[in-house]
Design a protein that fits this description.
The chain has 208 residues and is an alpha+beta fold. 25% of the residues lie in helices and 35% in strands. It has a single domain, classed as Protein Transport Mog1p, Chain A, CATH 3.40.1000.10. The termini are far apart.
């Protein structure tokens, strides 16, 4: 059953990425995100276009979003959520508050995943202070589930990422993938992107 599911998800991922209008190649070079952040991947990713329905402003993937994705929220204002939703759905989203403690940023990321992707059963692996883009940041890693008992939906997910505040705005870099193969396969690539983070004109550029 597990092998059958993996075959099915790979097939869906291939079909998803085959739509040229939906995804474009993101080459391994400096890439601007929201005019406030620059990231440099160490390999080619597929970047979701505006035609792909996603709550996150930026979604990158290698094997398809069902298997792995790198998500970015850059320059979130105080009082705003990490993701974009409208109407009643937006009211249920947790929001960033200026001056938020680093550990509370991790809770914000998890609450956002729970609200938008049905994530549950979070198990922390590590939470530690870090320096990212010259800013005091929190680096985190955790596992979570997305399926229901007895279903054929993949339930084992793992995530790593970082969050930090700069000039009163929040920045979140989040990599998540199916365990065990897809997460470990792209972990070095995700960590390389995080290390490359640099604030640009809209943030505290040049600070180190």
């Amino acid at each position: 059953m597990r092998k059958m599911f993996r075959t099915l998800t790979i097939a869906i991922a291939v079909l998803t990425l085959s739509g040229c209008a939906a995804y474009s190649a993101l080459e391994p070079k400096s890439t601007d995100v929201g005019q406030r952040l620059a990231l440099t991947p160490d390999r080619t990713w597929s970047r979701a276009s505006a035609q792909v329905q996603s709550d996150w402003a930026e979604v990158w993937t290698i094997d398809g979003p069902l298997l792995n994705s790198f998500r970015v929220a850059a320059g979130i204002e105080s009082g705003k959520p990490l993701v974009a939703r409208r109407g009643e759905a937006a009211k249920a989203l947790p929001v960033f508050r200026k001056g938020m403690a680093l550990e509370d940023m991790v809770d914000l990321v998890q609450s956002t995943l729970a609200n938008t992707a049905g994530a549950k059963d979070f198990v922390p692996i590590s939470v530690r202070p870090e320096k990212v883009a010259g800013q005091d940041a929190v680096a985190f890693e955790f596992t979570y589930g997305t399926g229901t008992a007895g279903s054929s939906i993949e339930t084992d997910r793992r995530a790593l990422g970082t969050a930090f505040e700069a000039d009163g705005r929040l920045y979140v870099l989040l990599f998540e993938a199916a365990e065990v193969h897809y997460f470990e396969k792209l972990r070095p690539a995700a960590e390389a992107i995080i290390r490359s983070a640099r604030l640009t004109g809209g943030g505290t550029a040049g600070k180190s």
